[in-house]
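Model it.
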Amino acid sequence: MRLDRRSFLKLSGFAAAAALSSPSSVFSAVNTKPNLLIIHTDEHNFRTLGCYRKTLSQKQAFVWGKNVAVETPHIDSLAENGTLCTSFYATTPVCSPSRSSFVSGRYPQNTPVVTNNIRMNDDIETFAATLQKHGYKTGYAGKWHLDGFGKPQWGPEREFGFADNRYMFNRGHWKLLEDTPEGPRVAARNNKGRPSYSVANATPENFTTDFLADKAIEFVTANRNEPFCYMVSIPDPHGPNSVRPPYETMYQDLDFQPPETSKKSAEGLPSWGKKARPIGPRGMAKYFGMVKCIDDNVGKMVDHLKKLDLLDNTIVVFTSDHGDLCGEHSRNNKGVPYEASAKIPFVISWPKKIKKGNVINHAMSCVDFLPTVLSLMDVPTSGKEDGRDASGLFTGTDGSYKDIAFIRGTGDRNGTEKGDDKDNWFGVVTSRYKLIYAPEDKPWLFDLKKDPDELVNFYEEPAYKDTRKELAKELIAYAKKHNDPRITVATTKKYLAEAIA
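Modeled.
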């Protein structure tokens, strides 16, 4: 049907009026490219999320005592309306290496951020840089930790495709942030005027989790009529374990108990698994409070997407850089291959394309994020990534992705200097098995189905000979393809040769 000039102008007038009254609805019809919002936390134990507890036995879901848990309805809702991964691993369960792999799709030794505070190479192309080339408005708020030792170091000069990085800071787990005429800064100061981790005078406006969520909302609002990619990197629930009211006292009356794995014998443990002094009930109550504050802010961000009629066309990702043992195996923090350290939450929701209520058990890691999410968005990658495209698992169109991932410690600093042998481990994981090699120790093989507590080493068991052999072959192939120097360590090389013989 042809339109005469008068009819055309009339329809154009209606469109203009609609644009003024509801700009998001008009432009969303034109902009068919999906948006991307990544909510990224720091040092997050997956058992604190209700959607993960649903996938576990009672014993595994409530390791800190009977029914001792924090409710996370907003993150759970993302899982219910999207897909949850039960075997998503930090490529290296420490901040900087994991983050480098997540944004680049490359293994730490190839970025070359193999431990904390190393600058990522200038030539790394992140998913944001790729999306920027395809017309996306991009931005980042929160902890970055890929530009060396600067602390806090606001708005690093090297943006890596995150064009609006005003609220990106390089390092620190600051509790209070504020805007000033000179730009953002840490609001808490010590008696010398230097930034501090104090949580005194915290409010829903200046507490870091709230502040960063508000910046994500501001970015989304400003760019709602164009395709956007924004990553908000919340530095909680990493220590120090402190949080603003009312979250600080919300869980103080729970009957926290030491995890059963903390009571195991220290005899025969590998160097990377030695027992230490675990966190106490007061620290766990604050940790739960930080998680609850995060969940409430996830709800706030998702509600804003709904308000702007953007949720259906926005890929929302919730994940973390690594876990926190929180007393499991009588240890805190991260850096080791135990599940609570190396396994991280990964939830992704996009009603248009990702299966609702889906649970993926295949093992994958941070390097797989970039090729997977860009494939979901129909955006070609640079071709430099090490990770694999798992998008078919999320759409239900292709289940051929292999159930396997590779993880490593931080021992070889920059891939050249020899680090601590206890941190020089590396290994291969599937949804059931985990095989770990380290220079000081005999190899460990975990069967996560038979022994979810990770207390038993099955490596020498005759029944596991074929499993050991196949996993060792996979690890050798990975190391050769992706230049992992761990394969050249004498003791590791010897054990691998014996395993495949």
